Amino acid sequence: MPELPEVETVRQTLKQLVLNKQISDVSVFWDNIIKRPQDPVEFKGWLQGQRLRDIDRKGKFLIFQFDDISLVSHLRMEGKFGLYDSGLPKPKHTHVIFHFTDGTELRYDDVRKFGTMHLFEKGQELKHKPLVLLGPDPFDPLFTLEYFYEKLQKTNRHIKSVLLDQSVVAGLGNIYVDEALYRARLHPERIAKEITFEEASRLKEASAETINKAVKQGGTTIRSYLNGQGEMGMFQQELKVYGKEDTDCTDCGTPIVKLKVSGRGTHVCPHCQPVTH
DNA sequence: CTCAGTACCTGGTTGC
DNA sequence: TGCAACCAGGTACTGA
To answer: Which residue is nearest to nucleotide B12 (CA to C1')?
Structure first.
């Protein structure tokens, strides 16, 4: 499911639904999702009795702020949170349930079981993996052109691979990287250190604008992803290249092409995004 | 150190 | 229709 705009939509929705609820118990059905503390029994012990005070986000991570504990959660490819009445039968792909004292429960569902959860003492989460490894969000004032250009100058990787690197800029995934590169008129296989200052500037602005617009639209819905309230994002209407292979570029009419870059399906307009500049 | 490839999982789609 | 191969919005780890 999730890149930054989808995670932000989940954050806002979930905040309306579960703020101030108190955990009575936690059930864990797939231990590998729990990364810290590693023992699920200990994990449960840390959370019992805690009341949810806020939900933050950094990059693609949700940060649930409880009284004394922070829960850092990554949804990876297919993780979803949803609020339900307790006592219903456990669906096949529910792997963690947070039971609240008011008779509701927050379920974590994840078909592929790739998601992760880390607990920290409150205020410690930014000092440890995984959050400490993250670069700034695309619209963060710390994401400056000077910072970005220097990162690009230092690597031989394809530009797409650098944009996907969460330690450079946090929150872009396969959809928004393809969309940002299209909007900046850059081919995903351009070598990062050969990107000019002017091109880096275009790409930085395109990344922030694409993400900002997607956040406003509630993210992108692909297949059947629904957010915590069952609402769908609308940004898919704005997609120019992602999933548009064999359709005509809206700017020049050339058919969009799908290729593989950095091991990921990648969508480009061969006319608007030439390999050489 | 950098970076491409692989592992982690399940299920839907494609193509023979 | 049957079934194997491939693909999926992500990232951690391995070893060249």
So the answer is: A223
User: What is the tens place of the pLDDT at every residue in A14-43?
Assistant: 999 999 999 999 999 999 999 999 999 999
How far: A4 CA to C6 C1' (Å)? Answer: 27
Distance CA A21, CA A82 (A): 14
Residue A265 CB lies within 7 Å of the nucleic strand C: yes
Count of H-run helices and E-run strands, chain A: 6, 11
For the question of whether the overall pTM of this predicted structure is more than 0.85, the answer is yes
Reading the block at residue A101, the tokens are: 């004292």
Strand segments, DSSP code E, in chain A are 23-28, 34-36, 52-58, 61-66, 69-74, 80-85, 94-100, 104-109, 116-121, 257-261, 264-268
Q: Which domains does chain A have, with CATH numbers?
A: 4-133 (3.20.190.10), 145-238 (1.10.8.50)
